[in-house]
Design goal:
five-stranded antiparallel beta sheet, alpha+beta, 15% helix
């Protein structure tokens, strides 16, 4: 039944001015929707100034031990996630006003950067896919940081791609922070190293 609903949603034509949903969520009772069973089909090929081709070149140049090409990429939008049933959709809607998918920040030295929560899929079936942090220079579009969320262990014991990455504006010395959940306390802060002119992150745990 869930599969039928997912296919039906995928075939729906979105209203003008709204992005088509990309991530279809089916949550069990009392389960956080971002840890639910998720089916996704990413149809876009860019997130702001970054195309899938540009991101693939960046990965090839910066990740020596694990290269892959990205064939699908898009920024998270307010309607990117959709529940396949009323209860899941109500859970998603309950958080809609709290969630941030894009932040701008001024780094030490005055550099303006943009952090985005994005969705992506590698070109091959074994390649990574899911949610990721993409940080770019606001003026040039240069990629400053690419950090996929990776996987988490689902309730059935299998590894699943993590599709949901929440952003939070700065609260201290960081540029901003991100997390895979809203109430679990896990948070990663994003900083800018002025000397080396690059973005780095620090995980703060629970």
């Amino acid at each position: 039944m869930v599969r039928i609903l997912w296919v039906a949603l995928l075939l729906c034509v979105p209203d003008a001015g709204h992005a088509a949903p990309s991530v279809f969520v089916s949550a069990e009772k009392n389960q956080a929707w971002w840890r639910a069973d998720i089916q996704a089909r990413i149809l876009g090929t860019s997130a702001g100034p970054v195309t899938a081709e540009k991101l693939s070149a960046y990965i090839e140049a910066t990740q020596i031990y694990y290269n892959y090409r990205v064939c699908a990429l898009e920024p998270v939008q307010p309607d990117s996630f959709v529940g396949v049933d009323r209860e899941t959709q109500a859970s998603i809607d309950a958080y809609r006003g709290q969630l941030v998918w894009r932040v701008e920040a001024i780094a030490p030295g005055g550099r303006k950067v943009v952090g985005q929560s994005v969705l992506f899929e590698g070109c091959d079936s074994e390649d990574p896919k899911g949610g990721a942090l993409l940080v770019t220079d606001a003026a040039t579009g240069e990629i400053l940081r690419w950090q996929p969320l990776g996987t988490f262990t689902g309730d059935d014991g299998t590894d699943k791609p993590a599709w949901v990455l929440f952003l939070s504006p700065r609260e201290g010395d960081e540029l901003f922070s991100f997390s895979h959940c809203t109430e679990c306390g896990a948070q990663t802060n994003v900083y800018y190293d002025l000397t080396r002119r690059h973005i780095y992150t620090e995980y703060n745990g629970h």
